[in-house]
Amino acid sequence: MVPPNPFTDINSLNSIKATDARISCKLPRSNSLDSMFGHLHSFPSVESNGYDKQGMSHKFQNGRVQSLAKSTTQYDDAGSSLSLLCQHRKGSTLPGDTRQNVYDIDLKTSLPGPRFYPVDAVLKKEKLVMPLREWITYDVRETAVKIDPSNQEKYHKASTLRKVTISHAIATLLQHLALNCQVTQCSSNDLKRLCSIDNFVIRVSTEQSDPGWEVMGVDMINPKMQVQILTGVYTSCNFFDAVNEEEFTGRTITSNIISPYVGPDSTGDPEATNDEGMLCHFFGLLLHGLFAGEDLIGITPQALQKDQGTYEDGMPSPKRSSLAFFSHMRRNEFSRATSVSGPSFNNHHDRGSLQINWVLHPLSAIGYSGSLSQVVTNLVNCGFGHSCSGDSYPSLEMALVDICFLLQEPGRFLFEDFQLSPNEGRIIYSDKRSRRLYGRTAEAHLITDTFCKVASTGESEALLISGFQGMIYFCRCGKTRLVESIFEAIEAVDGFVVARKFEEVPTTSPISVVLSAFNELCLHFFSGSTPEEVRTIYENLVNEFGEKFHILARVLPNAVNMLSCCAPILIATNETDTSTLSDYSTLCFTLQRFMRVVSRTSRPVMLFLDDLQWADPTSLGLVHSVLSDIKGTNCMLFIGTYRDNEVRSDDIISGFLDMLSHFNVMTSKIHLNGLAESDVNSLVSDALGTLPRLSKSLSQVVFRKTYGNPYYVLEFFRSLILRDLVQFSLRERRWIWDHEKICEQNITDNVLHLLSNKLKSISESTQTALKCASCFGMAIDKTIANQLSANLKFFNLSADLDSAVEDGFIDCDGTHYRFVHDKLRIAAYELINADCKGQYHFELGMAMHSYCAIKDNIDALFATVDQINHGVPSLVIGSSYQHNVAEINYEASVKSTHQAAFTSAFNYAKVAVSLLRDDSWATQYSLSIKYYLQLGKSAFSCGCINEAKAALGKVIEGSKCLEDKIDAYFLLVAIPSLESVRTCVHVLRLLGEDLPNEDMGSCQINAAVSETKEMFERESDEALLRMANLDKSDERIENIMKFYGHLSVISWITATKMHSFYMARFAQFCLKSRVKCKHLPSAFVGFGACLCNLLTNEPFVGYKIGKIGLLLLNTSELDKDEASRVYLSYYRELGLLFEPIQACVDMHNRGYELGMQVGNTSLASFHLCLAVQRKIISGINLQVLKSEIESCLKLANLHALTDLEVVMNICYTNVLTLIGEQSICPIQQVQGPRYEEIELTQEMMSSWFSGHFDRVNYLSKKWEALSNKINVKNPIEAISAAFYNGLATMKMYRTKGYKFPQPLRHISQRLLPVLAKAEECSQWNFKSKASILRAEYLSLTSKKEKAECEYEIAISSARSSKFVHEEGMACELAGMHYKHHGNMTKALDFLCQSKKCYESWGSQQKVDQMVSAIQDLLLMIPNTQCCMQDITTAPH
User: Fold this and answer.
1) Which of 985, 963, 990, 961 is nearest to 1061 (CA)?
2) To 5 degrees, how large is the angle CA 195–CA 200–CA 201?
3) pLDDT tens-digit series, residues 1147-1189
4) CA gap 1082, 1103 in Å, rounded
5) 209 — phi, psi (to 5°)?
6) Is residue 104 pLDDT above 50, yes or no?
7) Strands 779-781 and 605-610, how do they pair?
8) Are 770 and 817 contacting, i.e. CB atoms less than 8 angstroms apart?
9) Residues 1316, 1321, 1323, 1328: what is their CA dihedral angle, to the nearest 10 degrees?
10) For position 306, what pLDDT does the model report?
11) Closest to 710 (Cα-Cα) out of 482, 502, 501, 442
């Protein structure tokens, strides 16, 4: 039968992926190989048996040569060939085989998939069959003669790989026989013949122009078997080119037995051996001949007896009976044998009586790697019986595993590339060991799965990884390397990765670390997008930020740089803007809005921040604000790593996790424990370039000593090398170790002590350089190092740091010197005397101040100040440079504010203030104002309110004139309170405004409002719009308007009664000054809102004045910072009276965004409160509204917005009541008339829908009393109170049967006119309410037809205005009306329609009420049982 040719089916070949291998040949065992072997003839010569004249293939059969036809049998398909690959019987046993796999290993490789030969390349290859011995001779001759000397090394590598491939194939054949036949029971002579070089033929394919061979298969002559080899080469489709590649990483071999042996069962030799030792032994001899290309080397037994000592390397020899030939080899006492014979045994069972009369020439002595030499040696040693070395193979299966390692990772095991170090004669590998991940496969999969979840759902998640330090040099087993292992996979799916690291001694503020990550993200977004996508991003950013685009430019400069091609004019204008970010809230909000625009599920983002234990609350809060954005989806996975044994006492990480949980951000945690013993073995194997089987004894000791702690493993291992307990043998070309002495070693629990001892062994100048570098954290700028070298104390610093690089303590990336691990930095820092550390830092900082250009380098400025401040105050106060230190701290504070590092700015400002003299207000007046004012600003920006008030109080107390106090006053009134109102009034009085200190009576307030109204009536619209611009030099007018504008907002909440008076005086001042500035729109709109009295014609006058204010706001010359304030005043009352309520909600949302942009969180929270209140009365779905209010409550908690929290709790309770759920909000005592007003009107609404009509009337009376007390009736609250009060009164009148007309007169004379006036202002907002109230009144007064007409109008109006709750209310009341008048059919129709409306609204309690009413009604209508069941069981 002609054997199949693996290259016949070209299409199937190209689809094969050689990443898995297994053998599944289940054949009957044979007890003897006599019938299988027959008589082995020697190989015929090449002329008669190797090739014919046409170059056709041949095969051997019964010692004869037969030609192979060029046409061969095809494989069925690629899948069938993959089903016969070389990993065998996992989880199954063969017939008659009871052995288990001894060495279970996955032969899959994690490298990129192989690239097979192109079809045309394969077609050109000629197929040749050649005896193995002849192939060896030919390969040696080709390599030695025809190869260019310059390529000798590359051709040697190619030859080595081919020979290892052949070894793999032969091992596969022998293992197949061992598994399916009783090979282990054969005589040694049979096994010797079986493993003879002359028993194998190889099939090769080559191109005529390529001297490199490709091995296609190996044939065993007797018994007749064939194995097909499929080779996956990772770098080139040409074998020779593959080994030319510098980064050649290996190949995956799949050996497929295509002509298995099937022989009869036999009883076998009763004296045969019962293990695979001799089979491995003779296989080892075969491999030696294959690689060495020569026969055995003979020595006398007497010479062998001399080797009873130790290795020349000083290491004790192992069992000498099995490895004695190595000792003789080391002394170069070899003589080539003329006749060679193997071990001689008296019988099959007693191999202990071995008489050695030859020795092998170790492969390492002729240029092969130590690992390969060990494989061959350990195979040969299997023939020495009880004297076998512990490294000998117990089975051929384990040897096959090691051969696979040789092929898969030749850079580690086959091609050693090392040189002697000029220092201490140590070995230095010129190639970098593969940076693989050890023992973290499950964790890596979890990270990958989490990222895929974020990419598919678009919902941001957080993943925190904790554990001990774990990375040094090439080790990949710690937190950082775990995360970095998936970077490539994320980038392969078009994801973006940005990574940053916090440092214990930061060179920049922690918040700058986060900002720089998002700034880098801009580059990824724009570089990974098409020009059209970039243009779309630009347009969306402009729409989002509008005139505040310069704020984005300040936070993320790369966003502007990348968009410059789209808007050069806009960006050029904004680049000159010198305004600064207001506070931390502005920063958070800016990043939120940016991520809303640029994030997308097609390009998910992974933000990785390392060493979170060194972060601060503001930096983590910035990350939290992006992850928990309630307005958008950011599609971002945040991964943070930290050392749980080094987390600070305040444990900011726990607070960070609590915040994420509070905002329902999905969060996962991973804790990394020490490495498992198998993982430590992999690490040691990689470190030594030794096969895992051989390094296991050493790794077991290392594991017991270190408990798998990655950092301890590497440090302990390096200490063994430094003490020569592990050393490299040049003769054996491998690492060797003294097992007994290593077991006696102890590892200290104090790694810092270990590292300190190591640092003390280096030169004193290098120690000084490392101490200096450690003061700067993990890295020091090369520029700073060069400049410090000019200082006598730090002379030659750069050169000494270069020496530290050579010693391996630090790395240099071109711009920075960086410690290889922070434990090394800490150890270097500990070299500084603890009592002198402050002085050391201070002297270093002063040297930088003298020699470094800190004015031109912001980073150098921060580094200098940080060093100097270690000496504050003890080394600075009273010195000549006290003023200079204070000044550079002030400058650093200002620069930090510009960079949004508010916490750093606050700390620098505190130092500057502390360095002022005790009599600074007398001797350093200007500096005192400057420093304290900066302290107050920075304290406010990072949320330290008490510190801010104290600093600003110092300015007000110590300043000599109002001009010096004015900025402090304005900052002081930023937070709304009654005290802020009094402060504003006090400042206005100081500026010349005649304002009362105490509350005024209603008559005086009304008189001021009327006077201001008359002043507006005397002005034309054109005159109001064309006022002259304010002269910048007139600071008094600008300051008055600024404080009036602020007073207009805070008085609305905290001084409600006086609000109208303050607005009237504000408008009067603007009309008298007749100048236009950014505060003018606030004056006009605010006063217009004060005229909204529904019982007069003033609302229309106020609406006109308010519209003029909006027109002034849209004037391009005016600053838009006032927009949020103007929108609040206008849409709070005026807009709601005259414009659709849904539009008002949108403008409140816009005002919230503007307030957050300028950092006015109080103003933004007012907008958010009003937006939610308006949504409740507009009929938005209650379940949606419930979720939104929950998010607002979290936002209030995050930013400490008390006003927002109070209002949201009121609204939340109301919404839960409307839904029919029980409120879980804590009962709060509401303080302030505005909050009481909101609570009363909200509860009136929920009480009416719940059917508590008595309570509605009670709440209405309470609201009336409150309005009279504060002399203010908010029009919206007045309309709502009139509406629900009227409905509740008529319900009670109908159900309780009142006979007195007073309630009806109250409705007709007081409540109906309020609704009618509101309807005149806006039919969209109020027509349905007015019609419902009129319909109920007409129905109650027995005006049936008019009432029914009004019900229809109310239903139609509510539907057109999208007020689904009012539509349901109108239908419900209409149904009750028709029921009362006996029209049950129409009543049923209206009640069913009402039920649908309430379902759409989301009010389950009203749905249940309607179901009950419908059931009662159906009982009154005959023949409606089926209808009743259908209606009442319909899904809610």
Assistant:
1) 985
2) 170
3) 998 888 888 777 777 888 889 999 999 999 999 999 999 988 9
4) 14
5) -85, 0
6) no
7) unpaired
8) no
9) -40
10) 39
11) 482
User: Is pLDDT at 425 greater than 60 in this prediction?
Assistant: no
Percent of the chain with pLDDT over 90: 24
Classify 206 as helix, strand or coil: strand
1369-1424 tens-digit pLDDT: 999 999 999 998 889 999 999 999 999 999 999 999 999 999 999 998 888 877 65
Contacts of 592 (CB under 8 A, 6+ apart): 625, 626, 629, 631, 632
pLDDT at 303 over 70: no
Distance CA 606, CA 593 (A): 18
More confident residue, 822 or 40: 822
Q: CA torsion 1323→1326→1328→1334, rounded to 10°?
A: -110
Strands 496-501, 726-729: pairing is unpaired
Task: Measure the CA–CA gap between 686 and 731, rounded to whole angstroms.
Answer: 20
User: b vs e for 549-577, b when ≥16 Cβ sit within 10 Å of the residue's Cβ?
Assistant: bbbbbbbbebbbbbbeebbeebbeebeee
Q: How does DSSP assign 1178-1233, residue by residue?
A: TT--HHHHHHHHHHHHHHHHHHT-HHHHHHHHHHHHHHHHHHTPPP-SPP----SH
Bridge partner residues of 359 (DSSP)? 297
Distance CA 1125, CA 1110 (A): 11
CA distance 1274 to 1267: 8
385 residue type, one letter: G
CB-side neighbour CA atoms (13 Å) of 1210: 25
For the cut 80, the answer to whether the pLDDT of residue 1104 exceeds it is yes
Helices (H), 45-86: 46-49, 78-82
Label residue 266 by pLDDT band (50, 70, 90).
very low
Q: Which residues contact 1211 (CB under 8 A, 6 or more apart)?
A: 1172, 1173, 1176, 1189, 1242
Amino acid, res. 1003: C
Reported residue count of the chain is 1436
Question: What torsion, rounded to 10 degrees, do the Cα atoms 826, 829, 835, 836 define?
Answer: -160
Per-residue tokens: 500: 């940053």
- For residue 873, say if its preceding peptide bond is cis, omega within 30 degrees of 0: yes
Tokens of 457: 């759902």
Sequence-distant (≥ 6) Cβ neighbours of residue 1372 within 8 angstroms: 1390, 1391, 1394, 1410, 1413
179-199 per-position pLDDT tens digit: 877 676 778 888 888 899 999
- Quickly list DSSP for 1352-1390: HHHHHHHHHTT-HHHHHHHHHHHHHHHHHTT-HHHHHHH
For 664: left if phi > 0, alpha if psi spans -120 to 50, otherwise beta; the answer is: left
Average pLDDT score, the chain = 75
3-state secondary structure 437-452: CCCCHHHHHHHHHHHH
pTM of the predicted model, to two decimals? 0.66
Q: How many CB atoms sit inside 10 A of residue 744's CB?
A: 9
Specify the DSSP element, H or E, that contains 954.
helix 945-958
Phi first, then psi, for residue 337 (nearest 5°) are -80, 140
d(CA 884, CA 849): 10
* Paired tokens of 1383: 């029209």
Which of the residue ranges 12-26, 741-755, 817-831, 1086-1100 has the most confident prediction, judged by mean pLDDT? 817-831
Return the SS3 of 197: helix
Place of tokens 């770098």: 235
Average pLDDT on 5-26 reads: 30
Token pair of 1184, please?
């949606």
Identify the H or E element spanning 232: strand 225-233
Integer Cα distance of 1048 and 1347 in angstroms: 45
